[in-house]
Design a protein that fits this description.
CATH superfamily of the largest domain: ATPase, nucleotide binding domain
Distance between the termini: 36 Å
Largest sheet: 6 strands, mixed
Strand content: 15-25%
Number of domains: 2
CATH topology of the largest domain: Nucleotidyltransferase, domain 5
Strand order of the largest sheet: 9-8-7-6-10-11
Order of helices and strands: EEEHHEHEHEEEHHEHHEHEH
CATH class of the largest domain: Alpha Beta
Number of strands: 11
Structural class: alpha/beta
CATH architecture of the largest domain: 2-Layer Sandwich
């Protein structure tokens, strides 16, 4: 019988976390903020054959991999199932079928062990990844969230409360990277390949900034930037001229990232906050990491950047947010369901 009403919260619990929102089947185990295991089985190579993630294929891949990735994590940590104090899992946002695989396994695992189940918002996981990079990190701080589904600058006021200071009004920055990759005939995944193509390129292609110039000055738009790239390339092709993909990639990368970096640092200065963190797949981009690091250093602001592996989808970030929820006693019922979309606000 599943009964956790009298469960006693531990100061440094051992939490097993699962992440299956897209094409990565991941399992991590932490003790407090110490990472004991980090295992990932990816179907990205298979998805690349189709030019992007196919939901049905992703779901089947998760079904095949979830038991094995948990076995690997337990082996890495040198633990038995009985050593786990709680199970955290992504319940949204993401591909519904993929989420259900991880959530169903997590429910069964928590039920069998009679330990708390923690349902984690994938996006809050990206924010929480910084806690594992700096075990002494505490709110408040400014967070730059840059992923395939979300782009926002947040004031992280506490472990559970964040205020959106600025966000995109259309495409997310990661989505724009993927679309530009397709325009340049680059393979999936788009973001890393755009970065690679940008190496050796110059910022000579005239492209609009991703920052919307009217209103509060904290709104971003990537739809227009993406369209500008398409128009530039098509115009040259219609004239029979060669498109320098290196220059296009470099110019797009700068136009997409510079406004985010500038406004993130400006937000910290305006609010008098001395620490900035970042999360999301685009934070693995070398240009973003170097420009944000340089600007923070020049302004005397502490920057906490998760390792690249923990910027893209992973279970460590789910464990980190799971720890925050665990310490607050925010446990999920067995009736919790997966959600394809969860509002950022």
């Amino acid at each position: 019988m599943y009964d956790i009403e009298n469960y006693k919260i531990k100061a440094r619990p051992v939490i097993l976390a699962l992440e299956s929102s897209c094409d990565e089947t991941a399992c991590a185990i932490i003790r407090g903020r110490e990472v004991l295991a980090d295992a990932i089985i990816s179907s990205a190579d298979t998805q690349a054959l189709y030019g992007g993630v196919v939901p049905e294929i992703a779901s089947r891949a998760h079904t095949d991999a979830v038991d094995e990735v948990v076995r690997r994590a337990l082996a890495q940590a040198g633990l038995r199932s009985a050593d786990i104090d709680a199970v955290a899992v992504t319940y949204g946002a993401g591909l519904l079928g993929a989420l259900l695989v991880g959530l169903s396994f997590a429910k069964s695992f928590a039920f069998a062990l009679n330990v708390p189940l923690i349902a984690v918002n994938h996006i809050r996981g990206h924010i929480a990844a910084a806690y594992l990079e700096d075990i002494n990190l505490e709110p408040p701080f400014i967070t730059l969230l840059a992923s395939g589904g979300h782009t926002a600058i947040l004031h992280t006021k506490s472990y559970s409360e964040s205020e959106v200071l600025g966000s995109t009004c259309d495409d997310a920055v990661g989505e724009a990277f993927d679309k530009v990759a397709r325009v340049l005939s680059l393979p999936y995944p788009g973001g890393p390949n755009v970065q690679k193509m940008a190496e050796g390129g110059s910022f000579c292609v005239p492209l609009p900034s991703a920052l919307v110039r009217h209103g509060d000055g904290m709104t971003f738009s990537y739809s227009g930037l993406k369209t500008a790239v398409i128009n530039y390339c098509h115009t040259l092709e219609q004239k029979g001229q060669r498109v320098n993909k290196h220059d296009v990639a470099a110019s797009f990368q700068k136009a997409a990232i510079d406004p985010l970096v500038i406004k993130t640092v400006e937000s910290a200065e305006k609010l008098g906050i001395k620490t900035i963190t970042a999360g999301g797949g685009v934070v693995a981009n070398d240009y973003l990491r170097s420009t944000l690091s340089a600007m923070c250093e020049s302004k005397g602001i502490k920057l906490v950047l998760p390792a690249k592996r923990r910027c893209t989808d992973n279970a460590c970030m789910i464990a980190a947010e799971g720890l925050n929820m665990y310490l607050s006693g925010k446990f999920a019922p067995m009736s919790v369901n997966a959600k394809a979309a969860i509002p950022l606000r």
